[in-house]
From TrEMBL:
<dbReference type="InterPro" id="IPR016161">
    <property type="entry name" value="Ald_DH/histidinol_DH"/>
</dbReference>
<comment type="similarity">
    <text>Belongs to the aldehyde dehydrogenase family.</text>
</comment>
<dbReference type="Pfam" id="PF00171">
    <property type="entry name" value="Aldedh"/>
</dbReference>
<dbReference type="GO" id="GO:0006081">
    <property type="term" value="P:aldehyde metabolic process"/>
</dbReference>
<feature type="active site">
    <location>
        <position position="245"/>
    </location>
</feature>
<dbReference type="GO" id="GO:0005737">
    <property type="term" value="C:cytoplasm"/>
</dbReference>
<dbReference type="InterPro" id="IPR016160">
    <property type="entry name" value="Ald_DH_CS_CYS"/>
</dbReference>
<dbReference type="InterPro" id="IPR029510">
    <property type="entry name" value="Ald_DH_CS_GLU"/>
</dbReference>
<dbReference type="InterPro" id="IPR016163">
    <property type="entry name" value="Ald_DH_C"/>
</dbReference>
<dbReference type="InterPro" id="IPR016162">
    <property type="entry name" value="Ald_DH_N"/>
</dbReference>
<protein>
    <recommendedName>
        <fullName>Aldehyde dehydrogenase</fullName>
    </recommendedName>
</protein>
<keyword id="KW-0560">Oxidoreductase</keyword>
<dbReference type="GO" id="GO:0004029">
    <property type="term" value="F:aldehyde dehydrogenase (NAD+) activity"/>
</dbReference>
<dbReference type="InterPro" id="IPR012394">
    <property type="entry name" value="Aldehyde_DH_NAD(P)"/>
</dbReference>
<feature type="domain" description="Aldehyde dehydrogenase">
    <location>
        <begin position="4"/>
        <end position="429"/>
    </location>
</feature>
<dbReference type="InterPro" id="IPR015590">
    <property type="entry name" value="Aldehyde_DH_dom"/>
</dbReference>
<feature type="active site">
    <location>
        <position position="211"/>
    </location>
</feature>
Length: 434
């Protein structure tokens, strides 16, 4: 395994040093080929996501393929302009000089992907790596094997190994790759493994982006439009059965609107997934038995006011809302990453915000209120990766909003132009006349 990793990095470095990937036309052609490859493989992508996670075709297309194609098109539209050297002013003490910033690729990048959006989270970073002119090795998650194989086959069909390659496998494969001297590491996954990746990167002083997880709160204040809040929380929480890094992890709701919101959430779940979700064949599954068991243990925390049933044979947990939760409950000690929503009630939001601030910085935060003063207060008081007001998830679908975490939810960001930036070194040059 180690030899294979070493050989791959050497082969890619030799290819990178030919300079071919530095040509912007070459990169544009590579991105166009990727687009054609995805179109050709579309049915197989949908099948793989169905096999691995029971994602319906509509959900798989909307939350994986469409996002990748959108990023591809946006990048193709802007790459010439992003890749061009940028002239900047020179300080007045040196009037005979000009200054220019040259974006240049790092070299050979490693992309390690998780299983929850196994297609999107491998190809999203790849678009940035290619756009910036790098070679890249992708290590997909072993927990979604059908998608991992398809990523391998698609990439092998579209690109020579010396340019873009996929190395499939489990932890040993990741470890072998992390021993090599890449020029950039882009990791998406858990905070725990993020620490391992950063330690390995430190050995060779490799710059990293870490897209990690955490517990993202959603707050519903007493003046919120409750029907809208319920709709948007249900969509954000139960997409992919809650296995979404930016899903609302838990809910803080003002006591005056608690009962009404819970009833709206109940109605919305029924509207979206049917009166009996256990019989809904297209509700996504929990990825494996280990995660199913971990999640099942939470079902007895507090009181299940909605849902609470599960089926181990089908790895199915129905959308569940837990009341009577305390900050010490087991469900509040780790990222849930499943269709279980604990609810806290408040009459004064301030102690709740203090509690959020005391805990690791969330990847996302969602606030439902019309009060601009409260919006301002929460945005200035709480540090978190990014989020939405009166919405969930959608901040991560905009090409114009860099997406990433802060503190234990990650470092660095990507999407849109930022994906190009993150895989580029900015070489600053001052040129003086004789
Ligand atoms: P994970 O950290 O277990 O695995 C991610 C990748 O790391 C996989 O390819 C895996 O093979 C590899 N890996 C696992 N153990 C390793 C080790 N000891 N050494 C080296 N590599 C190792 O994460 P996961 O379970 O696949 O994904 C779920 C987590 O990812 C959640 O915490 C979620 O919030 C987070 N996530 C974050 C984002 C984001 O954009 N911020 C997106 C999706 C998922």
């Amino acid at each position: 395994m180690m030899n294979q990793a070493k050989q791959l990095v050497n082969t890619q470095r030799t290819f990178f040093n030919t300079g071919r990937t530095k040509n912007v036309e070459y990169r544009i052609d590579a991105l166009q080929r990727l687009r054609k490859g995805i179109e050709k493989y579309q049915q197989r992508i949908l099948d793989a996501l169905h096999t691995d996670l029971n994602k319906s075709a509509a959900e798989a297309y909307g939350s994986e393929i469409r996002i990748v194609l959108g990023e591809l098109d946006f990048t193709l539209e802007h790459l010439q302009e992003w890749a061009a050297p940028c002239s900047v002013p020179t300080s007045s003490i040196m009037p005979d000089a000009v200054s220019t910033i040259y974006p240049e690729p790092y070299g050979v990048a490693l992309i390690i992907a998780p299983w929850n959006y196994p297609f999107q989270l491998a190809f999203g970073p790849l678009i940035g790596a290619i756009a910036a002119g790098n070679c890249a090795v992708i290590k997909p998650s072993e927990l979604t094997p059908a998608t991992s194989h398809l990523i391998h086959d698609l990439i092998q069909e579209v690109y020579p190994q010396e340019y873009i390659a996929v190395m499939e496998g489990e932890v040993e494969t990741s470890t072998a790759l992390l021993n090599e001297k890449f020029d950039y590491i882009f990791f998406t996954g858990s905070t725990g493994v993020g620490r391992i990746v950063m330690k390995a990167a430190a050995e060779h002083l490799i710059p990293v982006t870490l897209e990690l997880g955490g517990k993202s709160p959603a707050i519903v204040h007493q003046d919120a439009d409750l029907q809208l809040a319920a709709q948007r929380i249900v969509r954000g929480k139960f997409l992919n059965a809650g296995q979404t890094c930016v899903a609302p992890d838990y809910l803080l709701v003002h006591e005056q609107v608690h009962d009404q919101l819970v009833e709206q959430i109940r109605a919305e779940i029924s509207e979206k997934f049917g009166a009996n979700v256990m019989e809904n064949a297209s509700f996504p599954h929990i990825v494996n038995a280990r995660n199913f068991d971990r999640l099942s243990a939470f079902l007895t925390n507090g009181t299940a006011v909605i849902g609470g049933r599960s089926n181990r044979d089908q790895l199915m947990i129905e959308p569940t809302v837990l009341d009577d939760i305390s900050w010490d409950s087991p469900v509040m000690q780790e990222e849930i990453f499943g269709p279980i929503l604990p609810v806290f009630t408040y009459n004064d939001l301030n102690p709740m915000l203090d509690e959020i601030v005391r805990r690791p910085k969330p990847l996302a935060l969602y606030l439902f209120t019309e009060s601009e003063a409260l919006q301002e207060q929460v945005l200035t008081q709480v540090s978190f990766g990014g989020g939405c007001i009166n919405e969930t998830l959608s901040h991560m679908t905009s090409h114009y909003l860099p997406f990433g975490g802060v503190g234990e939810s990650g470092m660095g960001s990507y999407h849109g132009k930022q994906s190009f930036e993150v895989f580029s070194h900015h070489k600053s040059i001052l040129k003086r006349s004789k």
